[in-house]
Each structure stands twice: as C-alpha cells, then as structure tokens.
Amino acid sequence: MIIKDNVFVVTGAASGLGMETARSIAAQGGRVVLADVNEGQGAGLAGEIGPAALFVRTDVTDEASASATIEAATAFGPLRGLINCAGIAPAAKVVGRDGPHPLDMFARVISVNLVGAFNMMRLAAASIAKSAPTETGERGVIVNTASVAAFEGQMGQAAYAASKGGIVSLTLPAARDMAKLGIRVMAIAPGIMETPMLMGLPRDVQESLGRTVPFPARLGRTAEFAALVRHIIENPYLNGEVIRLDGALRMNAV
C-alpha cells in the first residue's frame, strides 16, 4: 500500500508510539487522522504536522465517537489504513495486599485495549472495503498494537497481558475475514519502549531496564516502532502475523 496521498487513522496519536507513527506517515506524504482523548496534545500535534493532519477527539470504546472519527477520515481523503496505538496499562495482582483484583479495572483495560481496538478496526474496515482496490487488489491495511506481555506477562500484568493476548489471537482470524476485501491485518508486539510512562522513570531505572534486552541493550525507540508500521503498510505480503519488536527480550516473572 502506498502511503503518499492516502489517509490513515492513528489511535493514541497524542503521545508515544502513536505520535511517532503519525509523524512518520505524514513525513512519507500521507494524511493522518489523529484519534485520541487528549485534546491538548492531539491538537498540538496536528498544528505541528500541518495540513496533512486532522485531530478528532476519539473514545475508542464508544461506538458513536469511533464512527464519527471514521466519517471524518473518509471526508479527509481516501481512507486506506488504521494503526491502533491507544491503550492503558494499570498494574494489579490477581490477589494483592488489598484483596482481589478490582473487577472494574480489569474490565476497563479489556475495554480500551481490546474492545476499543476491535471497535475501530471493524468500523475502519467497513469504510475501507468501499474503496476501489489498487492495481494489486489491495484496499487497505490495519495494524494493531499487542505487547510482549501477551506472551510473557509479568506479575501485576494480568489485565494488560489478557488484553494484548486478545490482540494476538484476533490477528489471524481478522485477516482471514477480510482477505476477500483486500484488507490486510497485522499486529506488532513491542518490548520495553521509550514511551512517556517509561521515560518518566529515573535515568538509572531506564538504563537498568535497557540492560535486560539482549541486543541492542537499551529501550526500544518510538521511531523504530513507526519504521515497522511503515514497512508493514508498504509490504503487501505481510498479513495475519504478529511481529515482536523487542531486541530478543523475553521477560521474567518480575
């Protein structure tokens, strides 16, 4: 899929992986819809990128909000892709010092990280399916964000790991469902990345975490995530797979 002159929706675009991905798409000549609940940062990024960006306040868990974002994207130009980066990661053990894991916390993580991604995917795909196919028969591409926690969730990550495990399991059947529509579905499972949450930790803690990565022994960079998204968009034979982006990291229990 060609990025230039096509529209891509990026959820969670106001920070971290989503922000860098949005910048990357715009730098390649694409048009990007910045979907996020953070109006200040989202509007600021739109101003930075310029006419190639449109910010739309989006709650990925809300059907009406998500539908409005997809409608805005189709009005912005030919919608060809969705990159789901929106997510939350509160920590709690199944049974901790204060008792059992709060059910509302678990449900909220699943709602944002998994249901929200599916909500955006189904609506974006329905819109992309109406587009004319390219010369190769492709109509669009969807990239969801999983995590290495889907495979090696650590203590306190039951909700987060479950949500990202859902993304992993969703990838292949969704790709098969949309094959006849010419829409590819992929997922990226990042390791420990330079997201706002980790960058807020003390420098020595960041370096300690980086040393747990075999090679290169550092935190992953948001630009590396964005580069992989770009390659997935442009490589038509990538479909139905989850790619780990983790420097060969395999997380321990804690």
What gross morphology would you assign? Answer: globular
Q: What would you call the structural class? A: alpha/beta
Unreliable sequence segments: none
Q: How many helical elements?
A: 9
- Biggest beta sheet attributes: 7 strands, parallel
Question: The CATH topology is what?
Answer: Rossmann fold
Instruction: Please bin the fraction of helical residues.
Output: 40-55%
Rg from Cα: 18 Å
CATH class: Alpha Beta
Number of strands: 9
For the termini, the CA-CA separation is 40 Å
What portion of the residues fall into strands of 2 or more residues?
Answer: 15-25%
**Major beta sheet, strand line-up:** 3-2-1-4-7-8-9
Return the CATH architecture.
3-Layer(aba) Sandwich
Element pattern in H and E:
EHEHEHEEEHEHHEHHHE
CATH superfamily: NAD(P)-binding Rossmann-like Domain
Name the average pLDDT: 96
Domain Ketoreductase: 6-195
GO molecular function, one term: oxidoreductase activity
Family: Belongs to the short-chain dehydrogenases/reductases (SDR) family.
Pfam families: adh_short (PF00106)
